[in-house]
């Protein structure tokens, strides 16, 4: 049975503590994030908002904001929205001119920037090196595929944050991914000219 966005909304109202996505007619229940992953997402959201809000460049949202995505075959206004996918990146940015007024509903567009933070549940358990590497690749694959889908549908930049390896991978359509480490800075000149963030600022501090 292929479920719709209305089905998801009904289930969500009955289970408000769960985050859900609709993927190809199937409702996917998203588990709670580990504390560190959520803190990293919150830190990035904060750093983005510090730049975006005073300049009125657009809207930054977290992991609970749902986007009704266009189908591959249609543009953003085509097709029955009830039969389309609804996804929620960990952090998103939408340019002001594309969403001039906020909505009390899911939005039917693709964010200009989408970010996924690898959670503990997506990290491999300790095993032999070869097995661990294979498991890591398998668990990263859904996140990479999600990012590639958003890029295919119109996102300008997708970012994957890996707290285990302290790496940030930046994806753009038709370009090789760029891997950033602690001595690098994250920039998104095509969306946020002048903004930059040291990768080390993403990692939660240790207090005395």
How would you summarize the topology of this molecule?
Layout: H1 5-14, E1 19-23, E2 26-30, H2 35-55, E3 58-61, E4 67-68, E5 86-87, E6 91-95, E7 113-117, H3 129-153, E8 157-162, E9 167-171, E10 178-180, E11 185-187, E12 196-198
Question: What helical percentage do the residues reach?
Answer: 25-40%
Q: Give the strand tally.
A: 12
Order of the strands making up the biggest sheet:
3-6-7-8-9-10
Coarse structural class: alpha+beta
Q: How large is the share of residues in beta strands?
A: 15-25%
The coarse overall form would be: globular
Name the average pLDDT. 88
Elements, N to C (H/E)? HEEHEEEEEHEEEEE
Helical segment tally? 3
Most strands sheet? 6 strands, mixed
Rg = 17 Å
- Show unreliable segments: none
Provide a short characterization of the protein structure.
With 208 residues, this protein is of the alpha+beta class.
Structure explained in plain terms:
- This protein is of the alpha+beta class.
- The chain has helices at 5-14, 35-55, 129-153; strands at residues 19-23, 26-30, 58-61, 67-68, 86-87, 91-95, 113-117, 157-162, 167-171, 178-180, 185-187, 196-198.
- It is built from three helices and twelve strands.
- It has a six-stranded mixed beta sheet with strand order 3-6-7-8-9-10, sandwiched between helices. A two-stranded antiparallel sheet has the order 1-2.
- A hairpin with a 4-residue loop joins β8 and β9 (167-171).
- The mean pLDDT is 88.
């Amino acid at each position: 049975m292929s479920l719709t966005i209305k089905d998801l909304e009904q289930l969500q109202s009955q289970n408000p503590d769960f985050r859900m996505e609709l993927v190809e007619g199937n409702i996917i229940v998203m588990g709670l994030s580990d504390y560190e992953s959520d803190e990293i997402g919150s830190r990035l959201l904060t750093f983005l908002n510090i730049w975006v809000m005073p300049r009125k460049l657009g809207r930054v949202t977290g992991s609970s904001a749902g986007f009704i995505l266009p189908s591959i075959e249609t543009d953003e206004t085509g097709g029955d929205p009830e039969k389309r996918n609804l996804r929620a990146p960990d952090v998103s940015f939408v340019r002001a001119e594309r969403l001039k007024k906020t909505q009390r509903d899911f939005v039917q567009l693709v964010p200009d920037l989408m970010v996924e933070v690898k959670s503990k549940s997506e990290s491999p358990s300790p095993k032999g090196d070869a097995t661990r590497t294979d498991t890591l690749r398998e668990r990263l694959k859904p996140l990479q595929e999600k990012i590639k889908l958003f890029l295919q549908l119109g996102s300008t930049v997708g970012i994957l944050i890996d707290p285990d390896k302290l790496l940030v991978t930046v994806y753009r359509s038709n370009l090789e991914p760029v891997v950033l480490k602690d001595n690098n800075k994250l920039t998104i000149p095509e969306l946020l000219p002048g903004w930059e963030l040291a990768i080390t600022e993403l990692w939660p501090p240790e207090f005395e």
